Amino acid sequence: MTMNAALPGALRAATPVYSDPAVAFIAANDFDRSTLVISRDRVAAQYDALHAGLGRAHIHYAVKANPAPEIIRLLVKKGSGFDAASRAEIELCLSQGAKPGNISFGNTIKRASDIAFAHSAGVTLFAADSEAELDKIAAHAPGARVYIRLIVENSLADWPLSRKFGCAASALPALLDHAKAVGLVPYGLSFHVGSQTRKAEFWNPVLDQIAPLWNAAIAAGHDLQLLNLGGGFPAFYGEHVEAPRIYAASVMRAVAARFGNVPQVMAEPGRGLVAEAGHIAAEVLLVSRKSADDMHRWVYLDIGRFSGLAETEGEAIRYQFVTKHDGGDTGPCILAGPSCDSADILYEKRPINLPLALGCGDKVVIRNCGAYTSSYSSVGFNGFPPLDVIVL
Amino acid sequence: MTMNAALPGALRAATPVYSDPAVAFIAANDFDRSTLVISRDRVAAQYDALHAGLGRAHIHYAVKANPAPEIIRLLVKKGSGFDAASRAEIELCLSQGAKPGNISFGNTIKRASDIAFAHSAGVTLFAADSEAELDKIAAHAPGARVYIRLIVENSLADWPLSRKFGCAASALPALLDHAKAVGLVPYGLSFHVGSQTRKAEFWNPVLDQIAPLWNAAIAAGHDLQLLNLGGGFPAFYGEHVEAPRIYAASVMRAVAARFGNVPQVMAEPGRGLVAEAGHIAAEVLLVSRKSADDMHRWVYLDIGRFSGLAETEGEAIRYQFVTKHDGGDTGPCILAGPSCDSADILYEKRPINLPLALGCGDKVVIRNCGAYTSSYSSVGFNGFPPLDVIVL
């Protein structure tokens, strides 16, 4: 990256997006390779907004969304907890000052040796959704607190989750009993409404599924303490989302209406905390048509599905693009990455509109890329380096 | 990785698969994390077989399939050329002793500065499929030889390629003329039959498309020298494929029948050269059912789509699995990776059969993973390390 005083004027234009520190930084600099620029001030502001809306619910940041150490350190200072997916994420949080009591090991698929590590490090809260996992936890973290993850049916999220995580409602009673039988503390329940759940009201049918299970567990004699709401807090990708404080407060009202005064509530925002704080500086490598009568241009960027934009799989997450030509005439484009992989196409079924003036070498800002980009990036597919990250 | 003398007997059983050096190595060792073990002897044998079948066609190994430096060095000694996708791949080949004249820059989407680097390093052969790319090459590698890549219609490959690469047949004459007009040498044509083209006869309809274009270009006065056959050479994933020498010889007969005595022929095997030489040592992290009446088990491995098995996307490539329980009763499984990502599922639409005795901690050998695994691996999604690689 080199400083560059001579900038595309449009990237500095006085529209709201340019008051964003990461966008301003991208506009003011040139980059040798695609780079994620993320602003701690924006993460802090988002944390404050979610925290205000969530009230007494404790935030456990989903580290997998963006494991930049500077972000972890900031959130430690803010009082956040952490939802870790692996031993390395636990080590990361500890290295940045997190207390083990503020770290939950939320992956329901854990290596036995990683459970033992977490236990030895002082982590006492683990997720499970099966007998076999409970047995592993009992063997390697005896006496730990566990929360059972439930499958959610009929998610209304933009990215509904698969059935990979969670047990069926019918399996819950036996799992709670089993946890107790193997010496664990059945501490609570968790679920996930689905990633990018754009409207707070979409939580209602999910909470309606979980509440009777919670009450039945209590009635069966389990002294549940923790309701873990999981993630699902949305980011702006072009379609309207409510402001984070209002959204979170609505969710908490819906929780209170169904669960009453649950002793502890936890939420695990990842995308909702960091996505809007970061943007990617990318470059156009080629603009072409396959033939003279091709209706669509093909626009090839220096970043693709294997170098940071994995969430474009199935065209699920539709990023927004800012160029110096914005405001001019536009036309439909198929957008693709730079690798020699034919699957490395970002948007084809639903082409995107980009300025007709766009050409090789033009800088493109991909907005709201703070989550699920840098750590998804491949180590070097096709010889392209992983996504660079600059934390402001 | 630690040595372990006490081994699952079945992994050492005297079946053909265990005569493979990488399988034997996996059986004889324990691994702390999922690891690709790849045998240079097997790569060498595969190179020899393809070389024998391809005859006068020069092999340019598709480096992206597996960029392990030891493999590149071996292939340099064998006399192979290299198809590079990026500056880093060119640098890798040069560092392992490849002559720049044996390296082609085969990506049709190149960064201008990478073209300039390649030119300065002595690379003289470049791919293009558009006027804009030809202009970039002319500006940064003046006088270079270029081959024009064509789109192939109606591929019969297991993994047909998208329209991302190549120009339509109708665009070819203008591109050849443009190359000459900007001072480049229109040197040849290239195409790609599609990845994992299992039968040599599937090449015929593709060659039938390309041959008239080649002849028309010659008739138009272009002194074409090079026919680049691309890749598509298959690996064994459970469905029958012809032996590499026989397959390659069949392809060359089909080429000769349609193109006659083309001055130079090039082939770019990647998967077909390295896939069968490598296997992944993985571990079962969890086996569970979502409810008591769940028809399928879920089997979770310590490797998934984001840590090396990206080619399971859409369940396109179906790997084969070897366990110490093979031979016992089996049942259908949904197979998934270890990350907290709901998309990290390997096989669900078409579940796979695995032994009912399979349990947490069991070693699993994933066969024929030498291609498109290690370099696809993410830098650390969910805190999981990239796929480890051991070259024998």
UniProtKB/TrEMBL annotation, chains A, B:
Domain of life: Bacteria
GO cellular component, one term: cytoplasm
An example Gene Ontology biological process: putrescine biosynthetic process from arginine, via ornithine
Entry cofactors: pyridoxal 5'-phosphate
PTM annotation (N6-(pyridoxal phosphate)lysine): residues: K64
Sequence ranges of the ANK repeats: 54-87
Active site: C340
Matching Pfam families: Orn_Arg_deC_N
InterPro entries referenced in this protein's UniProt entry, alphabetically: Ala_racemase/Decarboxylase_C, Ankyrin_rpt, De-COase2_N, De-COase2_pyr-phos_BS, Orn/DAP/Arg_de-COase, Orn_de-COase, PLP-binding_barrel
Catalytically driven reaction(s): L-ornithine + H(+) = putrescine + CO2
Pathway connected to this protein: Amine and polyamine biosynthesis; putrescine biosynthesis via L-ornithine pathway; putrescine from L-ornithine: step 1/1
Residue span(s) of domain Orn/DAP/Arg decarboxylase 2 N-terminal: 41-275
Keyword annotations: ANK repeat, Lyase, Pyridoxal phosphate
Signal peptide stretch: none
Gene3D superfamilies associated with the record: Alanine racemase (3.20.20.10), Lyase, Ornithine Decarboxylase, Chain A, domain 1 (2.40.37.10)
Enzyme Commission number(s): 4.1.1.17
GO MF entries: ornithine decarboxylase activity
Family per record: Belongs to the Orn/Lys/Arg decarboxylase class-II family.
Name assigned to this protein: ornithine decarboxylase
